[in-house]
Amino acid sequence: MHRSKWMYAACAALLAGVTAILGGVQAGQDSAHEFNAAGVGHYNAGEWDKAIDAFETALLLSPENGTLRRNLANTFQAYANQRASRGDFEGAIDLLDEAIQVDPENPAPLTQHGAYSLRLERVRDAVFRLEEAVELDPFDNDALELLGDAYYRANDLSAAMTAWRAVLTSDPNRPGLADKLDKAEREATVEGNFRRAASQNFEVSYPPHITGNEQQRVLTVLERAYRDIGRRMANAFPPAPIQVIVYTAEDFSQATQLGDHVGAVYDGKIRIPVQDAQGNSLDSDELERRLYHEYVHVVVRYLAGDHVPWWYNEGLAETLSKELSTRDLEMLRRAEAGGNLYSLADLEGGQLGRMGADELRLAYVQSHAAVDYLWRRFGASGMINYLAAIDRGADGAEALREAYNRTHDALEQEVVREYVR
């Protein structure tokens, strides 16, 4: 199953340690002890509601008992972890609110709350909860790294880098963190003097030599995309503010290290060059196409997190931002005739940086055709079922079977019959 490393690694450690705490009520408090013992039994059986009832009763009988308070909070956390593993992050957060109220000096539910808030793109909530967790335990590297993630998502690069450096000081080999820090430092070099503007749902950062009219044009298109794409994707509207970085072509290349064949990217923030290498602004149609495409990725991440297969994610963004052209269909025909079509299973992982411009173009067109076919046959309901399966931890093949009753091979053959032959 696919989840953040904290959600499962740290939660597993939490749940393994809970049983050592459970049962720590003095036997002299007979009634409280009995209800605590019952709570332990229900907890170990995964009977969360019964465990909560038992611990709450024990706490009423012995309200000053810190062990009972921690037992109850840990049960809310374990229940929340189960909810999150099934994709119910809303329900998980509600349970963590209860845990925090019961045991406000315990940093663990605050950290867990921050992780789930980030999953739901509630960046401000995540910052608030994770700052509380770090204040209670400044040496918790899980909370501190997550706080850096939250600052980064809020486009506070300086605060993010400070948090990540603190983690690396005590844990220099922490997996993936040095790469995140390098990326943020590169972006800060480019974006250090950028200005900021905002609309109802977006915050945009842009260089001083990009005109106010240019950045306002970006915000206007994105607000329209927020409404249009949100409605088409079953009324999915991510929480504001959504971060957008506007570049020149040179700055975009320096910040992202992507080739000039990449017109925009979404990596938790929408990044788009609005001027080419000669300083010419994108025309209105092309700007809208690119922004609509990237905004689809925003909604996909909001609905299903970071593990949606590349071909489906990009194919959906293409389907909802443009039509398949005659040139696209001719490319598919030539590739099919030459035996050069990709297996969709081979396009599950990210392809940027792995393919040349021509290869990437074919991968995009083939992904577009596959999702266009699914969209025309099954509409938004099929998409919602597919993304929900991914969010619950299914892999791409499992999600395709669950939502569309198809294998990769079967879908590829149907797409060829529909668009090529």
Provide a quick synopsis of the model.
With 421 residues, this protein is mainly alpha-helical. It has helices at 5-21, 30-44, 48-61, 66-85, 89-102, 107-119, 123-136, 141-153, 157-170, 177-191, 212-232, 249-256, 284-304, 310-319, 326-337, 357-391, 396-404, 408-419, and strands at 195-198, 202-206, 242-248, 265-266, 270-275. Helix 11 packs across helix 13.
Description of the molecule:
This protein has 421 residues and is mainly alpha-helical. It has 3 domains: 1-104, Serine Threonine Protein Phosphatase 5, Tetratricopeptide repeat (Alpha Horseshoe); 195-300, 3-Layer(aba) Sandwich (Glutaredoxin), CATH 3.40.30; 310-419, no CATH class. The protein has 18 helices and 5 strands. The protein has helices spanning 5-21, 30-44, 48-61, 66-85, 89-102, 107-119, 123-136, 141-153, 157-170, 177-191, 212-232, 249-256, 284-304, 310-319, 326-337, 357-391, 396-404, 408-419; strands at 195-198, 202-206, 242-248, 265-266, 270-275. It has a 5-stranded mixed beta sheet with strand order 1-2-3-5-4. The radius of gyration is 24 Å and the shape is globular.
